[in-house]
Write a structure and sequence with these properties.
- The longest helix is centred in the N-terminal third of the chain and has 20 residues.
- The radius of gyration is 25 Å and the shape is globular.
- With 432 residues, it is an alpha+beta fold.
- 30% of the residues lie in helices and 29% in strands.
- The strands form 7 sheets. The protein has a 7-stranded mixed sheet, with helices on both faces. The chain has a 5-stranded mixed sheet with strand order 20-19-21-22-23, with helices on both faces. It has a 3-stranded antiparallel sheet with strand order 5-4-6.
- 35% of the residues are buried.
- Bound molecules: glycyl-adenosine-5'-phosphate.
- Glycyl-adenosine-5'-phosphate (GAP) binds next to strand 10, strand 13, strand 16 and helix 9.
């Protein structure tokens, strides 16, 4: 497996991820996404949205505000329970999460004595309006889920879905994490993709098992190696305050197994809490049994940034070709930031305008890169490093035979294809 340092350096060199505020020395575990990272994130979110919302008729979308009424966080239990145990080293003054220490009571950095544990709420606080007093306090959401629960009635009335049905949402969440690190694995600002699937009480166990399996398979279908994935069921004593059962899809990161996505059985905890908190009945009328009840919820919750990290780690490959090392990201075609690169062998006319016309034509369908600098071998290596599945080379022969060469990232095989058929052939090779 590739080391994190190697991956971080590739990410910077090729424009996937940059340290945020780098020219000011960086800013506490915040990261910026460059041209490649931005495309890749969009592809991840698009793949999730297609599978979760567009291709199903039992899930609809939502885009709720990041700032919500402060009572939301009182009712949801986050104000009271969304805490981590914090300890400080009396000697070197570093801070740690007590539940992540290998030796309790001892500083892992210098061996010094640690302070007593105190609970630290990881929600970011801000003020709404010009006055910075307690009546103006608001929080940046630490999960997208609550925006879904508080809109349950609106979405249900508008969409007229019958149980079981889900509401999906993608967007930024914020947590003032005590310990961050491992690149984009744990950060303070990140993007989530969550879906709350509302079911009839009593059918929740069955749907929980369904979503655990469905989410594991989603990663496999997008090419993540099955040996690097596993399921981990949380022990009952360690469950979040809202959960009756949680299973993580875990990935084998360079630092060991860790969470990639969590699937939680949230019962009727949230809808009940918001019914009590708001005074608004968040119930469902079942016209088959003629009864009102609060649905139970199964929640698959994933992070875009963590997923991007996993796709990159899993796709990274090095091989020796003609005595040289070739670095290649074997990304799934849907996830790869660039689908096709158009590479003219010369910058001169009329080759250049033939190649540019091709680029303009293909870019209406796919994200296309155009590169006319340096030797063709170096250009192929650059495309391999960003995971471009197909390169189209326009050479001098093209002017005579109106054909181009398609080079495959994984096999490095080359096919000669008439320009007239190019779009169809690319479509067949990409699959979309
Ligand atoms: N609504 C449930 C919920 O938020 P979670 O396990 O705390 O559950 C879901 O978060 C997913 O969000 C995680 O599996 C992870 O992918 C991502 N995530 C959570 N905290 C994160 C952080 N500090 N940095 C990056 N991603 C994070």
């Amino acid at each position: 497996m590739v080391s994190m340092d190697t991956l971080v350096s590739l990410c910077k060199r090729r424009g996937f991820v940059f340290q945020s505020s780098e020219i000011y020395g960086g800013f506490g575990s915040c990261w910026d996404y460059g041209p490649m990272g931005t495309e890749m994130k969009r592809n991840i979110k698009e793949a999730w949205w297609r599978g979760m919302v567009r291709e199903r008729d039992d899930i609809v979308g939502l885009d709720s505000a990041i700032l919500q009424h402060p009572q939301v966080w009182v009712a949801s239990g986050h104000l009271e329970n969304f805490t981590d145990p914090l300890v400080d080293c009396k000697q070197c003054r570093q801070r740690f999460r007590a539940d992540q220490l290998e030796t309790a009571g001892k500083c892992p950095a210098c061996g010094g004595e640690l302070t007593e544990e105190r609970q630290f709420n990881t929600m970011f606080k801000t003020f709404v309006g010009p006055l910075e007093d307690t009546s103006a306090v608001a929080y940046l959401r630490p999960e997208t889920a609550q925006g879904i629960f508080i809109n349950f009635k609106n979405v249900h009335n508008a969409s007229r879905k019958k149980l079981p049905f889900g509401i999906a949402q993608q967007g930024k969440s914020f947590r003032n994490e005590i310990t961050t690190g491992n690149f984009i694995f744990r950060t303070r600002e990140f993007e989530q993709m969550e879906m709350e699937f509302f079911v009839k009480p009593g059918t929740d166990e069955e749907w929980y098992a369904y979503w655990v399996q469905a989410r594991l398979n989603w990663y496999k279908d997008l090419g993540v190696k099955p040996d690097n994935l596993r399921l981990y069921e949380h022990p009952k004593a360690k469950l979040s305050h809202y959960s009756k059962g949680t299973t993580d899809v875990e990935y084998l990161y360079p630092f060991g197994w860790g969470e990639l996505e969590g699937i939680a059985s949230r019962t009727d905890f949230d809808l009940k809490a918001h019914s009590t908190g708001s005074g608004e009945k968040l119930e469902y009328f079942d016209d088959e049994t003629n009864e009102n009840y609060i649905p139970y919820v199964i929640e698959p919750a994933a992070g875009v940034d963590r997923m991007l990290l996993v796709f990159l780690l899993d796709a990274y490959d090095e091989e020796t070709v003609n005595g040289e090392t070739r670095v290649v990201l074997r990304l799934h075609k849907r996830i790869a930031p660039v689908k096709v690169a158009v590479l003219p062998l010369s910058k001169k006319e009329p080759l250049a305008s033939t190649a540019r016309d091709l680029r303009n034509q293909l870019s209406k369908r796919w994200n296309v890169d155009y590169d006319d600098r340096q030797a063709i071998g170096r250009r192929y290596r650059r495309q391999d490093e960003i995971g471009t599945p197909l390169c189209v080379t326009v050479d001098f022969q093209t002017l005579e035979d109106q054909a181009v060469t398609i080079r495959d990232r994984d096999t490095m095989e080359q096919d000669r294809v008439p320009i007239a058929n190019l779009e169809d052939v690319l479509y067949q090779k990409l699959g979309f």
